[in-house]
Amino acid sequence: MKSQYDVVIVGGAVIGSAVAYFLTANPDFTGSVLVVERDPTYAKASTSLSAASIRTQFSNAINVKISQFGYQFIKDFGNLMQVGDDKPDLNFHSGGYLYLAGTAEQEQILRESHDVQAACGADTVLWDQDELSRAFPHLNVADIRLASYGRSGEGWFNNTGIMAGFRNKARAQGADVISDEVVAIGRSGDAVTSVTLKSGAVIQAGTVVNASGPRAALTARMAGLDIPVEPRKRTLFVFDCAKTPEGSATVNQGRLPLMIDPTGVFCRPEGRFFLTGAVPTSDPAVDWDDFEPRYEEFEDIIWPALAERSSGFEAIKVVNQWAGHYDFNTLDHNLVVGRHPQVRNFVFANGFSGHGLQQGPAAGRAVSELIIYGGYRTLDMSEVGYERIVENRPFLEKAVI
């Protein structure tokens, strides 16, 4: 570790590692990069505890395009991240997403969102009750007004694999990655100048990137700045079925998708089991170290909805559960990527609100372009910049789980 770096990235999970990769992979960048990660095990990182999925079914074009790039990047991940003989495999499952609309409002959102997706070239289709029932015979569709299904470009993958791939490749390309904690950020006027580590080291920094997930607000406050991001707890459950419906579909070689019920409960295959979760009835901010699962959510929210949706989910048994944190953007539940308008060498990559894994490749590329070129060269992500936080101008996205 040196005493000065051109770029210091606070947080080394998927977002921070992606930024480091894209910086060091770009021949136009000749600077030095330091990634500081407080938890070398990544055991409590949002990346490690996520459902690890990607979808193009959003209502806003920028989110669709972000995921389209993410999907292509994940497809090519092994070749892009190869280091020596190590060629990482993310074990991508192309199961697709299935949104179910049970109300007129939900139906309208699916139709409007589909128009946006189609304009972006996303491979999604709308189905009525009969088409839905033929595709997935195990479902009870009596109350469903419309369904939206992703035929390609959507699925789930190895969450820690994508993080490790980015990190290892960035290190191989020259980035320094250390296990330490940023406890202070030096600032002189409208510029940040340094970071102080828990170990006592003071590192001079040309640019600081806030990639600290649910702790984003803590990092911003060290520089005298603010971002409306807080930790929100999400509990995931793995369950076994007495009689699994997996393999019963008449599409996609029998594979079931990640289904989002009108109640908000979601469910997808996980090996021989299923993974499920729901938005809590009460969803307050939690302590940064609170990872106790909300066990009651399965009996109170999830199982009743699943049992109503499919007879295959009537007899199920929980075999595992854990809680992770969303880095929840309280303004609009969407990512914040961009420079601070006054403190220009402080860059945000925060507030992904559960979408960090799928949006990591595009966010990492975007931040690298801001640092190297002073603006975007590929996908213009100005819409999700920090300026909207200052102006209290929400970026509206209707397809939020």
Major sheet: size, sense and barrel closure?
A: 8 strands, mixed
Low-confidence stretches: none
Category by helix and strand content: alpha/beta
State the share of residues found in helices, binned by percent: 25-40%
Q: How many whole angstroms does the radius of gyration measure?
A: 21 Å
Mean pLDDT: 97
How many helices? The count is 10
Portion of residues in beta strands equals: 25-35%
The shape is globular
What does this structure look like?
By secondary structure, this protein is α/β, with parallel strands linked by helices. Helix content is about 30%, strand content about 25%. The protein is built from 10 helices and 18 strands. The strands form 3 sheets. Strands 1, 2, 8, 9, 10, 11, 17 and 18 form an 8-stranded mixed beta sheet that branches. Strand 10 (about 190-195) and strand 11 form a beta hairpin. The chain starts with a strand and ends in an 11-residue tail after the last helix. The model has no long low-confidence stretch (mean pLDDT about 95).
